[in-house]
Amino acid sequence: MRKNFGVKPYTYPQPVFIIATYGTDGTPDAMNAAWGGISEGNELSMCISAGHKTTKNILERKAFTVSMADVEHMTACDYVGIESGNKVADKFEKAGFHAVKSEFVDAPLIEELAVAVECRLKSYDEETCRLVGEIVNVSVDERVLDEQGNVDVTKAAPITFDPFNNAYIRLGEKVGNAFQDGKALK
């Protein structure tokens, strides 16, 4: 038996992205966005409306970073999602974030969040709110790397968004092998 939910933006899990930009005056800004993902090998696509300060900043500067929210900074990551940069000019600072200038794009990296994708604006459709960024670099803080230099997901402690229950979920326990386990069905 199945329960039908109708037309809803429910996929599970959804990454919790923290999009960071610089305003026209150079002030860092961040927002929480859960509707997005990889759309090509070197592209990230998200749905963010034109009214966001972050969207305005991206259109002005043609660049942004997307950090993965983590357990340690869940409250700050939630704060930048519920507070508007149009109303609170120092939202980034109030969240307790510290900006580090990206070497690759005109946007800040968030020092507290270990994994970040650095993007150049590829396109934005105001009607559909679809933002597409070209990935120019992925930077990872060494504190979440293992002895071989790979990302240790348990150290990174990313959170995901559960749209069914409006909750953040911690994933980190390996439960399978991508591109391997499915071969058993061949």
Automatic annotation (TrEMBL):
<protein>
    <submittedName>
        <fullName>Flavin reductase family protein</fullName>
    </submittedName>
</protein>
<dbReference type="InterPro" id="IPR012349">
    <property type="entry name" value="Split_barrel_FMN-bd"/>
</dbReference>
<dbReference type="Pfam" id="PF01613">
    <property type="entry name" value="Flavin_Reduct"/>
</dbReference>
<dbReference type="InterPro" id="IPR002563">
    <property type="entry name" value="Flavin_Rdtase-like_dom"/>
</dbReference>
<comment type="similarity">
    <text>Belongs to the flavoredoxin family.</text>
</comment>
<keyword id="KW-0285">Flavoprotein</keyword>
<dbReference type="InterPro" id="IPR052174">
    <property type="entry name" value="Flavoredoxin"/>
</dbReference>
<feature type="domain" description="Flavin reductase like">
    <location>
        <begin position="9"/>
        <end position="152"/>
    </location>
</feature>
